[in-house]
Design brief:
CATH topology: TolA/TonB C-terminal domain
Order of helices and strands: HEEHEEE
Helix content: 10-25%
Shape: elongated
Mean pLDDT: 89
Number of domains: 1
Number of helices: 2
């Protein structure tokens, strides 16, 4: 099942360790230097895995590919729910580089 951007969810996907857990995962698994902001979209599927990872606004091919790999290899999420059924959901994330 796909969701359009206008569909409302009963529950959005949740990373088990919360938003801070996403940052920790990135800090422990991403070994690149960059500056500025990098914008990523991805889908959390019905099984809680990330897929369709896309760098919308990146830094360089090397950094963008590294970020994409880290997102693709994320631990399972708690999937979104609609009418008590797990559904795919699009997500957006910003990485702030210093």
């Amino acid at each position: 099942m796909s969701l359009s951007k206008n569909d409302s969810l009963d529950r959005y996907p949740m990373f088990p360790a919360g938003i801070n857990g996403i940052s920790q995962h990135m800090n422990h698994n991403l070994y690149v230097r960059c500056s500025g902001q990098i914008f990523i979209t991805y889908v959390v599927n019905v099984d809680g895995y990330t897929e369709e990872v896309k760098v919308i606004e990146g830094y360089s091919t090397t950094v963008d590919n590294a970020i994409k790999k880290v997102f693709e290899d994320m631990p399972r999420w708690i999937p979104a729910m609609k009418d008590s059924v797990p559904v795919k959901a699009s997500m957006f994330y910003t990485i702030y580089c210093f």
